[in-house]
């Protein structure tokens, strides 16, 4: 079926990777989660000039494995608590591989009927899972950043069309300026999307409360003072605290003024898929557009995000690309290219299809609920210790931990040493943030493999880093990291 003669050679290489993968995935990483080598070493190994003549494929692969692996961050480990990352279910990883083997251009029905129909199926499943309106349109993106861009492009089209302005035809110059009210708790990628859409200058921040939730009185004032069409950006799952905006009230206030509500719900969206957590996101189905991620909490490999829009017409109007050479899907079927900013892309929906099909609705709910329970266990275990507090209400999977040093160093110095110790070790890799002016350890539980034993080991590692770093104040050297 594939190009004649390549089957055997490809199969040999895939066997090499398969054998390597089995070993790699089994390694419990008892030495360290972070990179084993520094940057100059990685450059020496990997960044030499491109030679004139290439090497055979097996040699190249072996070189990449030997020299690339030492610089990996093992973020798929069940005791990894950094950023908001998650790992990858075996079924997701295997389907990702299948996606490469099939190598479909997922842009059009014409370029991959299977990818088109699988996207239709996945779209339907996700709309049902999150309880969104049944007519919601869906685009499968590289991540939540592109999903934010997608949702806000639809918003821009819609609110300007309401003023009789066709932004796709006439551009922004001369358009009635919209007011974009953005929670101070919103993610940076919301701001970048607005900048890319030419709307950066229209952004007005809306104040938040002590958890990072949009304040309704501030929104009400801003909406009343705003001129022109309004777009309100809310946050479902603050990137630090996990806090969730009062979505139902935001939708009421904004819709009363004829505005559009866009929600960045990169990980918070998944609470909607849990019967136990659904009441934390009450009203989520009333927004106009949503952006979320597959590659964080659903535990599929990078890249995978999802954009949803309650208004399919402006969604397609903003992103559609027609050309004589692009055969449209028959009978109004799905061309994935019409719903996201990219054109040729992996058949990204395959991994979503396989992972959702593997988990079922119960499995998704169980994953999300388990991570939230473990985050509360983590918070409770840490808050038990002298000099350690938890600074946020643990409503989802995020825990923010400031430390009080006992040796006279500043909070920031003490935290930097804790972070260095955790990043040097095998358990509890985490990174810092500043929360309400105070340096905090930022912890996130989103890996499908994490158990209460893993969380207890992380608590021990964090408490021990806190207790011992105070005694031995010094800076970590590269040698120690290796
Ligand atoms: C990660 C994240 C994003 C950006 O998503 P990508 O998948 O990295 O593109 C946006 N918002 C929040 C809250 C996030 O955590």
From TrEMBL:
Example GO molecular function: pyridoxal phosphate binding
Keywords for the protein's UniProt record, in alphabetical order: Decarboxylase, Lyase, Pyridoxal phosphate
Keyword Lyase recorded: yes
InterPro entries from the UniProt entry: Aromatic_deC, PyrdxlP-dep_de-COase, PyrdxlP-dep_Trfase, PyrdxlP-dep_Trfase_major, PyrdxlP-dep_Trfase_small
GO biological process: carboxylic acid metabolic process
Keyword Iron: no
Cofactor(s) for this UniProt protein: pyridoxal 5'-phosphate
Modified residues annotated as N6-(pyridoxal phosphate)lysine in this record: 296
Family (UniProt): Belongs to the group II decarboxylase family.
Name recorded for this polypeptide: Pyridoxal-dependent decarboxylase
